[in-house]
Amino acid sequence: MKRNPLLIVCCLAAVAFIYSCQKTSESMPNPKPTGGEKALIHLRLDGDITINQSALPGSRKAHNYVFARTVRDSTIYAVDVRIGNTPYAAGVFNNPDSINLELPSNISYTITAAAFKKGSGEGLYFQEDGFGDQYFFRPLRRSLENRMHYTANDSSFLGDLTYATTFAADTTSSFNGFFPELDSYTGRVNFNADSSQTLNIPMRRVVFGIKYSAVNFTGGYLIVQYSNSMQTKYLTPDNIDNSLSIYTANDFRYSETLSSWERILFTIKWVKPDGTTTTLGGKELIPFNRSYITTVNITLPTGSTNTNAGIGISLTDTAWTSTNVINF
């Protein structure tokens, strides 16, 4: 029996096309849920954080110095939505009232929220992107747009707050410290989107504080130099009472204590009114507890002939409590 060569070629081509389609579908990731009924979820952040600031007018015009400075001083919110370990949606906000999610119903999600206040530092570092929005670096790597994006694919978003990128002391360049100088809050919930509702996320403050106090400090200034990735501090008799520095520790997202940390060793120098410099000594600060302030108490010499007389450095710890309000 004769076989039609054209028919054989067509059959082989069809088989190859079907096999190719099958291999392509096997190599593609599972599609994200689309269509069907969606639940409108409004996020409300509570717990350790209190939201009482007014919304800023949009997020553009970073070239305007006054506006950019206002953005740096405001609270920055970040929301990450995942299905299992797969990113589904993400967004960066400075207006908490605009944090709304549209999620396909009857699917379980993990929602992580974070809030970053400038605190004692210079705030999260940003640059203007091609659309005029503020683009934040680690741990966000997204622009401030006050809306959720449902094409999220960055698995590192909010993954680790260690070495978060902040403004350096010159308020222009960037700085990456193991303990970023930020007042940070995080929270996470597992959630099934079965209906439209307001979802409360309890936020946990994930910081520790270092404060300096000095006796016989009436002139000159103190230099606190750290041996690790923490910025040098300059203290005067006028500002030392407000020397509380707030640092974020990623471990506090899951524990009350640090399980791993970069050693915090510091040396204190006193630059006298006549310009001469005396090294007072140093200490190591370990370990920190969540929401605790470590106060470094310094006693300066009183005699003019013996620069070492009376010098001492001691440490005390104080807990932040609901009755011990720290304003900064």
Over all CA atoms, what is the radius of gyration? 27 Å
Biggest sheet features: 7 strands, mixed
What is the string of SSEs from the N terminus onward? HEHEEEEEEEEEEEEEEEEEEE
Q: What oligomeric state do the depicted chains represent?
A: single chain
Q: Strand arrangement, largest sheet?
A: 3-2-5-11-12-1-4
Q: Based on helices, strands and strand pairing, what is the structural class?
A: mainly beta
- Beta content comes to 35-45%
Low-confidence stretches: 1-31, 52-67, 305-310, 321-328
Mean pLDDT: 79
Number of strands: 20
Topology:
Elements: H1 5-27, E1 38-47, H2 65-73, E2 76-83, E3 86-93, E4 100-104, E5 108-117, E6 126-128, E7 134-136, E8 142-143, E9 165-167, E10 174-176, E11 183-192, E12 197-205, E13 207-215, E14 221-226, E15 233-235, E16 245-248, E17 265-271, E18 277-284, E19 292-299, E20 312-319
Parallel strand pairs: 1-12, 13-19
Antiparallel strand pairs: 1-4, 2-3, 2-5, 5-11, 6-7, 7-8, 9-10, 11-12, 13-16, 14-15, 14-17, 17-18, 19-20
